[in-house]
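Run MmcQ/YjbR family DNA-binding protein through structure prediction, thanks.
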Amino acid sequence: MNWEEAVAFALSLPGTEMSTSYGAPAVKANGRTILSPGREAGSFCLHIDRDTVEMLMETDPDSWWQTPHYTGWPAVLVRHDSADPDRVRLMIERARDQAASRPRPRPRPAKKG
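Sure, done. The structure for MmcQ/YjbR family DNA-binding protein is below.
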C-alpha cells in the first residue's frame, strides 16, 4: 500500500480530512494527524499510540519500523511493500479511532511576522 492508497483508504473513514502537518500533506481525524508522508522513501508514517507501535515493530519489523527521528514518539513508519495490507488498513482505522476519541487540539496562535 503506497502513500496514495493509504490516503485514499484513510479518507474513506468517517471524520477524516486531508490537511497538513508541519507543512506536509497529512490525513487528520478530529484535528489530529493519523497519516503523514514520513521522512523515508518507500514508507509513510502512521500516528498511533506507543504500545501499538512497539507491538507492530515486534511482530512484523519488515513492515513497521522507526528511524531515530521517530523513536519514543507515537508514530511508526509503514513500508509501501508490506506483506499484509489488511493489517495496515486495520491500523489506519485504529489510528483514526484513537484520534477521534481524544479532545481536539487547541489552535496554535498565529505567527507574528
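The chain has a mean pLDDT of 94.
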